[in-house]
Amino acid sequence: MRADVMTQWREWQEASSAPPLLTASPAGGSDRVAEEVRPRTPLFFLSYAHSGGRQRITKFFNDLTENVAQLVGRPVGADPGFIDTRMPDGSRWSPELLDAVGGCRVFVAMLSGPYTTSPWCGMEWYAFAQRMVIPKPGASSIHRTCVVPVIWAPILPAQAPRAVRALQWFTPDGPLIDPAVPELYEANGIFGLMTMGLDTSYQTVVWELAKHIRDIYYGYDVAPLVLRADQLHDAFQEGGS
Questions:
Q1: CATH fold group of domain 41-149+156-170+203-225
Q2: Looking at 123-232, which runs of residues are DSSP E strands?
Q3: With a threshold of 0.90, does the pTM exceed it?
Q4: How far apart (Å, rounded) are the C-alpha atoms in residues 137 and 16?
Q5: If you average pLDDT over each of 20-29, 50-59, 86-95, 192-201, which comes out highest?
């Protein structure tokens, strides 16, 4: 599949400044369709476990969206981020959801115990991981997947599936007013910072994450690809990725 996507990507770069939406064919390749990727395609996709704490995840998403909007210019009416607020009910793979994960530029995975055992989160991860990442001139290879694992609630390394362990997890690493922020974040996660009322540390982590998303956005392109729901697999199961 990846070779086919790469071929389509090169054809798009040569032929048009507006990328065609790619959709996976029954044979596992990717075919052109007439619909173009809409300018409203979100910049980042927030993947999280639907296991409670919706008020906090919504606040975090809104804060992150506001920060990203200040760092990255977007077309009028375009939302910087996408979040699926519906509870999984067996029919959540709507065209809107598939388009978002197939067209966004950055996949933000909110790690927690429930996240790493969720088949739905594993399928969202899988859908994004099938896409071809194209570094721009001067970009480093560190973001080659454009998947950003973020600690929502602390988990033991042994809890993380192989696909998650294989990537570098986000941690704030810029010049910080409080050098203790990274340690607090890694020990407690964003959910923990919010729960303990450590607002300054929380806001620092969100701002640094927004800058991280900005850097990936300007450093990499990601070939658009939309898989059908019946082509998705749980990336957290051995052999799923």
A1: Rossmann fold (3.40.50)
A2: 133-135, 147-151, 220-222
A3: no
A4: 20
A5: 192-201
